[in-house]
Amino acid sequence: MFAAVLCLCSDFTWASSDSERIRALEMLVEQQQKMLENMNIELQRLKAGEAAIVEDIVIVDETITESVTEQKAKPDFSMEVYGFVRADAIYDFKRVDPDWNDTLRVSTIPTKSGTYGNDGESIFSVRQSRLGVKGDYGPDVTYLLEAELFGVGGDQGQTTPRLRHAWATYKNFGMGQTWSNFMDPGVFPNTIDYWGPTGMVFYRNQQARYSIPLGPDMLSFSLEDPNTSFTVGRFRNVKACDLPNPEPGCASTDSTAADIFQAHNDLPDFTASYQKNGDFGHYKLAGIVRKLGYERLDNGDDGYKVGWGINASTVLNTWGQDNVKLEAVYGEGVGNYMNDGGVDIAPDSADLDSAKAGTVPILGIVAYYDHYWNERWSTSFGWSMTDLNTDDGQAGNEFEKGQIAQINLLHYPLDNVMMGGEFIWGQRENIDGNKGSDYRVQFSLQVNFDSGNLFAR
């Protein structure tokens, strides 16, 4: 186009007459007008293309914004499967209740020689094996479901699934079954016997809990299932007709006190705890208040006592990975929260006519030390005691005091493998003063597994 203009300009310069020069000027003007028209068309085309590009950018931007908004509205979900396979080989130099022979639960030690047969028993067990699922749903929701093979209650002595935890939280609120708020699970030592320290508060309970984070520390309150531990003591076999205030027409029944007395729980237990965490380890102070109800099925009489308890515990770091674990608990009517041997309510007198229900005082002590020789070897040793201040109305063969002591040597040949041996001594003392002791050795092999996040989005 510019070449044509130059050509016209050249023709205009060399034109010989006025008419020729005028004609050349007209052609130059026409050519410039065409050039302007073409430039305008090109400009309009460029503007139209720019608008299309902007529209495409807006559409892409809106799509990205909608996608990001949708992702924010749908929280991330994660699930992890974990647990371990544990095999125990035990030699018991004495004998305990056969339903509990794969652990040294001191309340199952007999105080009379030969109760369960001659001394000496070999036991193999896989009941400590465990399987769990845990995860979260966004930043505000967590869940935990865990079971083991250590049957209790109607399944005691059996290798049947037993629920450990069924726990869910939303922000600071949690509900389900997990460690009691009155308990400090961190105090449990690095031992391999299943039952562990007899004087420890150890209880997985159904509850509703609200926790308030205070930086690294925690203040928690819970309402928990009461589940009162109740005994009628020495009056267990007394006929219903011989009890005070017998029901009219009781002569026609063979019911005993054990048949007609039962716990009556109409209010949950209330607990509060505060845990301080730091480089030193942690300490925890917990308290509990309970209404311990009871009733008679024959005449409808009922009543209640107030139970309470204080639990102070700590895990103190010493050097390396080592730590000392200490706990002292005292209360009245908090026996069912103890690891072993506790009772909440018992008759307070040996006189049938004047006996009333009373809360049973209890003291528990735990003192253990976990030592790590290096990354592959460790030793834990310590002692624990439970002592009940029993009432006169309890039977002479009921549990009053228990002790346990342990020492072990454990090896970790691989990151997910543990094997080692432990020596355990336990003693039971009854209200009538009779004692029974037991000692055993245990070897265990444990292989852990952890799937990591099976599902995550």
UniProtKB/TrEMBL annotation:
Gene3D superfamilies for this protein: Porin
Keywords: Coiled coil
Coiled coil: 22-49
InterPro entries for the chain: DcaP (IPR045748), Porin_dom_sf (IPR023614)
SUPFAM superfamilies, alphabetized: Porins
Pfam short name (any one): DcaP
Identification of the protein by name: Porin
